[in-house]
Backbone:
């Protein structure tokens, strides 16, 4: 599945805006997408490091129009937690030397609110 096919749109509500300060972003995703698909899509599209993905299947609501009863479609919501403080990684290289690698991840999703 392509990353563009996995993420449909961001969900912008008061509750989802409160989560942005702690690095939680909410998206409407494809109903067949798995947590691994969502993680890969967010990391590729927004260049951030994903720590955790929570998914919720949202049931459609009954609506009434002109005396007829209908139902909105079911959809899937993903709450993605990103790393807000990417730090440098250290490991031992050849000869026991300590090698430092800087991560090239962003600490927020700028495109989320249309910035």
Residues:
């Amino acid at each position: 599945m392509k990353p563009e096919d996995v993420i449909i749109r961001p969900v912008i509500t008061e509750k989802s805006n409160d989560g942005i300060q702690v690095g939680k972003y909410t998206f409407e995703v494809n109903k067949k997408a798995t947590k691994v698909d969502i993680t890969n899509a967010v990391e590729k599209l927004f260049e951030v490091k994903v720590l955790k993905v929570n998914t919720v299947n949202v049931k459609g609501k009954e609506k009434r129009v002109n005396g007829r009863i209908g139902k909105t479609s079911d959809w899937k919501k993903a709450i993605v937690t990103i790393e807000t403080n990417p730090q440098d990684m250290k490991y031992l290289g050849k000869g026991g030397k300590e090698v430092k690698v800087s991560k090239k991840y962003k600490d927020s999703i700028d495109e989320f609110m249309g910035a």
Q: What stands out?
A: The chain has a mean pLDDT of 88.
